[in-house]
Design brief:
mainly beta; 11 strands; 45% strand
């Protein structure tokens, strides 16, 4: 159903059931209260006079795991990841505790997108830990706004890499606000 510009009432004119249904009932069904079907939904515009619901989603992996890969990769327990319906934009916050077994060696966490969109993880929006004593975990968080997404079902997944040596990661979490 679509929203219709309301009719202009004219004094003395008959207000028919069809006119009421089109200009009052159907338009009310296009409002946020009518579209709210569950708690914690957000509403975004999808075009002129059109809205859709979006559901913020989060995931967490606490397991400590490591990689020696210098390219972004999954750890033994992949992710965390969330799959949400997006428009062309999503706000993604992610965090991890990171350390390297070698002093002053980098650890990097980023996010990639798959599904309707394909975006590789990048150092441009990564969490970077460097210059820390060997074995010391440091917890950081990052927020990145993904634009230019293809609307539809998109999966956001954290990926990891080492600058050198062995990078370790734990307490990994991701939250996505789809727009």
């Amino acid at each position: 159903m679509a929203w219709t510009a309301p009719m202009t009432a004219v004094a003395g004119a008959t207000f028919t059931a069809a006119a009421f249904n089109t200009h009052v009932r159907d338009n009310l069904q296009e409002t946020a209260p009518a579209k709210a079907t569950a708690p914690s939904q957000l509403f975004v515009s999808t075009g002129p006079n059109a809205i859709a619901t979006r559901v913020p989603t989060t995931a967490y992996v606490g397991t400590q795991e490591s990689t020696t890969s210098t390219s972004y990769t999954d750890l033994t327990t992949a992710g965390p990841s969330v799959t949400v319906t997006t428009g062309t934009i999503a706000i993604v916050s992610f965090a991890a505790s990171q350390s390297n077994v070698t002093a002053d060696s980098a650890c990097l966490s980023s996010v990639g997108v798959s599904g309707s969109s394909s975006v590789l993880p990048s150092d441009t929006w990564c969490i970077l830990t460097d210059g820390v004593a060997a074995g010391n975990f440091v917890r950081y968080g990052m927020t990145h706004v993904f634009t230019g997404l293809t609307p539809g079902s998109n999966t956001f997944t954290m990926k990891y890499r080492a600058g050198s040596s062995t990078a370790r990661f734990q307490y990994r979490e991701i939250s996505v606000i789809p727009l």
